[in-house]
Amino acid sequence: MTSAAAKTGYVPGLRWQLPFVLLVTVLISYFDRMNITYAIAKIGAEYGWTTKEIGQYGGLLMSVFYVGYGLANMFLSPIGARFGPRKSLMVIIVLFSLFTVLSAPVAMMFTLFIFVRICLGLSEGIHFPMLNILTRNWFPAHERSRANSIWLLGLFLSMVLAPFIVVPIIENLGWRAMFYILGVVGMLISVPFVFLFVRDTPQESDKITPAELNYIESGMEPEEPLTDSIWEGYKSFFRKRAYWVAILAGICNNMVAFGLLSWLPTFFVEGKGIPFSSLTWATSIPYSLSLVGLMLWSYVGDKTNKRAYLAGMGFFGAGICAYFATTAANIYVAVAIFTVTIFIKVTYACNEFAIMQRIVPKQNLAAGVGFYNGFTMMLGGGLGPVIVGQVLAATGSYTSAILSITFLCAIGGVIMLILGRMIKY
After folding, report:
1. Is the pTM above the cut of 0.85?
2. N or C, which end of the chain is more exposed by having fewer CB within 10 Å?
3. Domain covering 238-425 assigned CATH 1.10.10.10 in the classification
4. Is 306 helix (H, G, I), strand (E, B) or coil?
């Protein structure tokens, strides 16, 4: 196949199995980080925590994960890249599975529990950077959005499936057993998948055909020279005001996303009084439409070329819907409106990295996106559950706690409208 044909045609092949294998690792990793959100009500009941203590201790347990996650994403990714993405994936899967298992025995000692949650975040921190390296190595430029979207589906699938897996385990075997089962089973599934089906580059695979290899190589961008020093590379995007505005938006997005994700199960059980077993449908349904939203809003963003404005309107729409969902008297109405809330909120996730690719110089994209992802996750993902938890602790009201998210949505919407005027994208 000629280079021209390769750029315009389509060659099916081995590369498309890779993102589905990576999807499995994302699914398992999100089960391990999200399990605490379903366990916190049971943990609090066992230890006799008051509503205020559930807000304080629960928020802290959820948030410290993102401190470790953000630090690893920012500072350990170069080490993982040097070690190789395939080997790094197997190592971090073993580590985050181990720390998931350790959560069960150390939960009796709160300080050790906090430490294990930080270690869990550190071990998962370089997961997404390694997936980005693999996607870039295996896919020509014009196929990467589709390839990325496949493994990114693991994130949203985990939110849909986790209630049907995690909740029954907790209810029938206990929350400690849940940590043991998820850690062991996740490792037994993920590590063999990566070992058997993942190679760092297509050139390392003995199963790829010459035609497919030529197709992949013909669609690669020419390599650009790097800056003379690491600091010079960072300065290339640090000096851009749009980069810091995007970081503010990313922090707001993660505060909203993880504040809601972390506290929605407890809000339904403690705030709305539904049976714990009902979490299987109450927390999975709101995330079900996110799978459709991921595809729809990506298409709209590409067609309109107004990604920042679209994400801004998504913030406003999600905030309005969250208000009505939180104040709804009927649990079924609340779940239905939360479903619309998350469907609209996906507009940011669909356009987030495309916006960063617009702002950050191409030759420094890895450093720019890595710093952005780690910094916004550490602050936003860390602060979101804490803010909601502190509102809960101060007011004693689960409704007030979740309503704090609407305020964050308004701030995020304003920031994205400002960013849209700055980058015209």
Report:
1. no
2. N
3. no
4. coil
